[in-house]
Amino acid sequence: MALLTPEDLEDLLNKLNMNNNIIKEATGMDIAQMCEAVYGTTPSSQKVGIVPITSGNGIIGNFSASLLAITEYFGLEGFITEHPDITGYHQAVAGGADIILMADDHIFIAHNLRNGKIATNHVCTGVIYSEIASRYKHTDSKDVLVIGLGRVGYAGASHLVEKGFNVYACDPNTDFMNKAIEELGVKAYDVDKPRKFSMVFEATPNANTISEGMIAERCLVSTPGIPCALPDELVEKYDIDLVMEPLVIGVAAMLYSVF
Ligand code: 2YG
Ligand code: MG
Questions:
Q1: Domain interval for residue 177
Q2: Is the shortest distance between the CB of 59 and ligand 1 below 6 Å?
Q3: Are 171 and 186 in a shared domain?
Q4: Where would I find the Pyrrolysine biosynthesis protein PylD N-terminal domain in this sequence (predicted)?
Q5: CB 104 less than 6 A from any atom of ligand 1
Q6: Number of neighbouring beta carbons within 10 Å of residue 201
Q7: Which of 108, 150, 155, 195 lies 20 to 30 Å from 128, alpha-carbon distance?
Q8: What's the pLDDT score for residue 178?
Q9: How many angstroms separate the alpha carbon of residue 172 from the centre of ligand 1?
Q10: Exposure of 25 in the CB half-sphere (CA atoms within 13 A)
Q11: Model confidence at 1: pLDDT above 80
Q12: 108: β partners
């Protein structure tokens, strides 16, 4: 998993607004409505405690501040604890947090202390980005392509299968591929037999994972992956609706999933 950099998180709410407009135009729903539809929840007056974590590669500049901005964007009160780690956790609970947000290099969680629900960023990101792809209004096809079957891609593929979509997937890792075929029943996308999709969910840490053979004219590509899966010229040439944003959409899904 690639770690976020402070630069990825610059201008975050601007990126969100741009992506929210694309999502609205492409699906008829904004990100909050999409989260409501998936999780069946709405924000009430939960207070969110954000705990910076120093383990591994340590604090990422802008990370906690971004989580606070996201919390407030969705109408909730939040605070960043003065201290990190266990002392910070204690401060969050003592300060009346209903929901704790915290991340180390391996996992990023939202934990609702009132109802016991716990969510991970990788599952929620997979679910919400695949949901966005699946709601593309310019197609009536049920075929979706999933590129990358790591933690995020697998969660999205699983969500799409549960929703009754016809899921094609690819990943250079044959163990990941076989697991998704056996456990989820996805079909292997064969690069030697190009087939074009109107809905693509991409979840890899690599650039240029989407090739011309995979995409239909006027398609939706939904991807949390940094760097972007698509070269700029393909976005123009195929009139692609591209949803790609570094943090907010996944965190929104985490919050809604624990409300
Ligand atoms: O508290 C801090 O500042 C750090 N311990 C946060 C570390 C987060 C590491 N995780 C990532 O960089 C991302 N891969 C998380 C996923 C968010 C984007 N989908
Ligand atoms: Mg990528």
A1: 123-245
A2: yes
A3: yes
A4: 9-118
A5: yes
A6: 33
A7: 195
A8: 98
A9: 25
A10: 13
A11: no
A12: 103
Asked if residue 52 belongs to a domain, the reply is yes
Ligand 1 midpoint to CA 103 (Å): 6
Percent of the chain past pLDDT 90, that is, above it, reads 95
Could you give the CA distance from residue 34 to residue 27 in angstroms, rounded to a whole number?
A: 9
Task: Kindly identify the ligand whose nearest atom is closest to the C-alpha of 224.
Answer: 1
DSSP collapsed to 3 states, 136-174: CCCCCCCEEEEECCCHHHHHHHHHHHHCCCEEEEECCCH
104 by DSSP, 3-state: which?
A: coil
Is pLDDT above 80 for 224? yes
Looking at the domain assignment, is residue 159 inside a domain? yes
Number of domains the chain contains:
2
- What's the mean per-residue pLDDT of the chain? 96
Report residue 225's pLDDT band, with 50, 70 and 90 as the boundaries: confident
Nearest CA to ligand 1 atom 3: 59
Nearest atom in ligand 1 to the alpha carbon of residue 64 is: 3
Q: Tokens 């909050």: give the residue.
A: 32
Give the pLDDT confidence of 57-114 residue by residue, as tens digits: 999 999 999 999 999 999 999 999 999 999 999 999 999 999 999 999 999 999 999 9
Per-residue pLDDT tens for 129-149? 999 999 999 999 999 999 999
Q: Which of 86, 109, 121 to mutate to test the pocket of ligand 1 (most atoms within 8 A of CB)?
A: 121
Is the minimum distance from the CB of 97 to ligand 1 under 6 angstroms? no
Element housing 79 (H / E)? strand 77-80
